Amino acid sequence: MDALWLTAFCLAYLAANRPFLDLACHQDAGWHSYWAAFRRRGVGLERQLNVLMGCARLGSKFLFVVWFALFGRGDPDALARKVALGLNMLVALGIHAVLAPRLGSGAALAAAGLSLVMATVPTFGIHYETAERTMRPLNLALFAAALALLEHPDPVLLGFLVAAMIGLALLFKITQLFEYLPLWLVLFFAEPSWAAFGASCVGGLAALAGFAALLAGLGLLKAENLGILGYMATSRRGGRDAGAAQGPSLDQRIDAKLAQGEFGRLGRLVVALARRSGTLSLLPRFFGMAVNARQFLPTVLGPVKGLMVLILAGLWLEPDSAAKMLLAAWLGGAVSGLILQARFLPLHFVPVLLPASIVAGLGLLRVDQSILAGEVGGALWLAAAAFMLLLDARWLAGRRRFPLDLRFWPQSQHAIIARNLLARQLAPVLAERAAPQDYILVWGTLPQIYVLAERRCPVNWLTTNPILMNPILPNWRALLWQSLRETPPVLILEIDADLDMAELERSTGLAYGLEASGPGWRLLRRAEGAP
Known about the structure:
The longest helix has 28 residues, at about 75-105. It contains 23 helices and four strands. It is about 65% helix and about 5% strand. Helix 7 (about 135-150) runs antiparallel to helix 8 (about 155-170), helix 8 runs parallel beside helix 10 (about 195-220) and helix 15 runs antiparallel to helix 18 (about 375-400). A four-stranded mixed β-sheet has the order 1-2-4-3, with no helix packed on it. The protein has helices at about 1-15, 25-40, 60-70, 75-105, 105-120, 130-135, 135-150, 155-170, 175-190, 195-220, 230-245, 250-260, 265-275, 285-300, 305-315, 320-340, 350-370, 375-400, 415-435, 450-455, 465-470, 475-485, 500-510, and strands at about 440-445, 490-495, 510-520, 520-525. It has about 525 residues and is mainly alpha-helical.
């Protein structure tokens, strides 16, 4: 019977996700797949933005090598979505396999089903290629291993688990360590010993050493290559240089805003307390977190209020057990990692989905059991969930006025997401007007177009946005001009309006003329006779 239910869940999941297979390729897929697409044509990992933008992305790049080898080249995001469909169904089956022997068939089915429901909610960004989404099956495997260790402690196996956790976090998303730390704490304090602590330390050091060796082998430990040490060094140096060049200090800027009356009474009180406590430098981060939350949270959480009620029900109603303790730790760690990133982009919620869906499944089962037992509390939980689901449906209905690609992002982000549609439109144009061996340059940030058009960029960082480049590679313009002189692009696609043609011609000796244009873009071709 369970097999029939799981089959029905998977078929419903495939049907519900069919429309999302046609979404335009997102820029994350461009960052992650560029090296895999062109590594046999001389492209290396050096100086690739997003090799380490505060969190490792090498794992995603290696996965695209595998996916391209297995399924062929093409739209990398469409390919990643199809792979994710299969992985998410495997995750649902894995949830059932892990929970059924421990919590029973009903709890396992409810959790497996709701894991597919949450994997379908598009406001979490899971329909775009992200490192977070790739880690879903890996995180389930880590949880299953942690649960087995909680039931049968073994210091040596704990060391291997710590090595796997740290290694995967370094490969895919370093902030996942916030998610794994509570799992380790539960395991360690369930049966603390020096052997367990020592094995954990050895496992952690082994993971760090292995990752350092991998980076060294790839040539990514040099500062100028934007590897881990390079990223940290250039970020710190760039931040200091930028701070020195900005002029007014943080204190002076805050005083100016206070004088202009931009802070209300509460704001003035917060500034006074921060100065007295010596925490004034933290205010910009907290302010940025608040602004980011205000921008993204209404959209991201818009269609999941009913599921949030079920999550609370699971935490409240599920009887205490080893599985519940680990789930609570897992969920708490994932939420902590989200908050500590201080950013609430849809994709950043993906690590929360797996523990949240399992807890919500347990909540659904316990509410159902409570209602069957004639308890008033179960009816109240169900009424609350039903009311929130109605609000969710109303919210979703209100988004239908937007195209599917824009429907599940804040309106403030629509101009950025619309560039995905621009990449889909212009990739065939670039492929038609540039030979396969030619170089093209996008002036702006549209990394996926290189893979879609199957044309290389003269540099590996795939953007000319100074906000992204200045802090981590301060001399990027000089390096860009040098690359253009060595491998001049046949076409330049201008989508950012800060291209200084006079500077380009002066710095490279190249000349470009307008070939075509449209809303938000210009296509420039290298002049005949130019080198």
